Amino acid sequence: MSLERLNIENIRNISNAAIEVDSKINALYGANGSGKTSLLEAVYLLGSGRTFRSNSTDPLISRDVQH
């Protein structure tokens, strides 16, 4: 199964993002702190149910966010 679309809400510094991905190759680029690793962590969380930065998902999820 391949990922076609990814919707991210309140993961680290990403408040809301909708991304369409290609089945062959995708490139992420941007300034430091722009959310590249947070996006990869969201994909990892989706596939494994855990984060690659710590043993807990609590720091991954942004809480008390105003919409």
Overview of this protein structure:
- This protein is of the alpha+beta class.
- The chain has a single domain, classed as Rossmann fold (3-Layer(aba) Sandwich), CATH 3.40.50.300.
- 19% of the residues lie in helices and 21% in strands.
- Strands 1-2 form a two-stranded antiparallel ribbon.
- β1 and β2 (14-20) form a beta hairpin.
- It is globular, with a radius of gyration of 12 Å.
Question: Descriptors for this entry?
Answer:
1 helix; single chain; 21% strand; 67 residues; Rossmann fold; 2 strands; alpha+beta
Tally the beta strands. 2
Superfamily (CATH H level) name? P-loop containing nucleotide triphosphate hydrolases
Low-confidence stretches: none
* Radius of gyration of CA atoms, rounded to a whole number: 12 Å
Helix content: 10-25%
What is the typical, i.e. mean, pLDDT?
Answer: 84
How many distinct helices? Answer: 1
The outline comes out as globular
Our measurement of the CA-to-CA distance between the termini, rounded to an integer number of angstroms, reads 32 Å
SSE series: EEH
Strand order of the largest sheet: 1-2
Secondary-structure-based class equals: alpha+beta
Largest sheet: 2 strands, antiparallel
Tally of structural domains: 1
